Amino acid sequence: MVNDDILAKINARLETVTKLPKMKDGSIVKLLEEKGISRRDFLKWAGTMAAIMGLPATFAPTIAKAAELADRLPVIWLHMAECTGCSESLLRTDTPTVDSLIFDYISLEYHETIMAASGWQAEENLEGAIEKYKGQYILMVEGGIPAGSSEFFLTVGPHGTTGAQHCRVASENAAAIFAIGTCSSFGGIQAAAPNPTNAQPLSKITNKPVINVPGCPPSEKNIVGNVLNYILFGTLPSLDAFNRPKWAYGLRIHDLCERRGHFDAGEFVQHFGDEGAKNGYCLYKVGCKGPYTFNNCSRERFNSHTSWPVQAGHGCIGCSEPDFWDTMGPFEEPLADRLYHTAFGGLGADATADKIGIGVLAVTGVAIAAHAAIGALKKDKKGDE
Fold first, then answer.
1. Cα→Cα distances 283→36, 50, 138, 195, 369, Å
2. Where in the sequence of the chain do the CATH 3.40.50.700 domains occur?
3. Which is nearest to 122 in space by CA: 153, 277, 130?
4. Is 297 annotated as a binding residue?
5. Which residue intervals of the chain bear CATH 4.10.480.10?
6. CA 106 to CA 110: how far, in whole Å?
7. Domain 253-384 has what CATH class?
8. What are 115-163's pLDDT values in tens digits?
9. Which of 41, 132, 168, 351 is deepest in the core (most CB within 10 A)?
């Protein structure tokens, strides 16, 4: 009954979106066919997206319909202080996935990396898109944003408009706002101490609600999935304490990791290149921050879903957590014995999920280390026998 009610609401929403003017010729179905992706594969992708977003498998046709309507909602994508890695994760692929093709199909009204215009023409395009689609467009911002007296560290266009001002103006009339990547979500490496440009997350620049989609970069499914969520529901998804969608950031890397069994068995890589590393043992002792990091990397992976850092042999560095550059380093040493000296406290990763305070969090951190140590001791004793 609950699912029926949700489906009814989604169908009503999709009827509204369908009535919006089509902004591109052709269709996503035709585009997929041209790239060799069948209707069957498209529906399999839709079923996967339904599962990722916490919806029943029976919603797959509805997800597919939402994807077909992706061109009804214009997107304005702003670049701030960043490396363009989030855009590259969608654009640079030799075997385009359904996710990247859908993003190609979306009506990108402004995106500095791929647009032909520059200078005053680019500025005119941005201003025109904001005015023409007022209250309708989705705003996506990539990169940290110099703020306050340091705004001048990032200026855009021939008139020297600051990046922060661009974000404020574009946010004012956006239907939904997404901070794409850790830099835009939390400041990223630009905000690392001593933060000379006073780089700030998008949420500190605008007073409008911002959905954070962190990662360095986030997976393409986490980016496209949020667009689909907005098409389906027309509202913000359920968010955690850091305004991250729970459907994508509700579990820790540790919870989903394929090496978790080795952690529980006390089988650890002691140093890179040892026998444990060759056997795929847990990377906790060489610095993996999976127990403190919320993301779905191990499930979604990267490079056309073929691999992710832990599978490739290096521990998670916690890049989807706030201030990871300062709080998670050194990246190749365990974090537990330094929990008392980090900025986690009541704002830490465990606190995000469990709503616990600094005292319990510290105990939790020590418990993780203790669990690892006890597991290793048992492993050693077994070896001696």
1. 39, 31, 39, 30, 13
2. 2-249
3. 130
4. yes
5. 253-384
6. 11
7. few secondary structures
8. 877 788 888 889 999 999 999 999 999 999 999 999 999 998 777 899 9
9. 351
Residue 167 marked in a binding site: no
Annotated binding residue at 288? yes
What is the pTM assigned to this prediction? 0.84
Q: Quick one: fold of 2-249?
A: Rossmann fold (3.40.50)
The two structure tokens encoding residue 302: 């990267």
Ligand-binding site membership of 183 (annotated): yes
pLDDT digits (tens, 9 = 90+) for 270-302: 999 999 999 999 999 999 999 999 999 988 888
User: Can you give the pLDDT at residue 353?
Assistant: 34
Confirm if 181 and 214 have CB atoms less than 8 A apart: yes
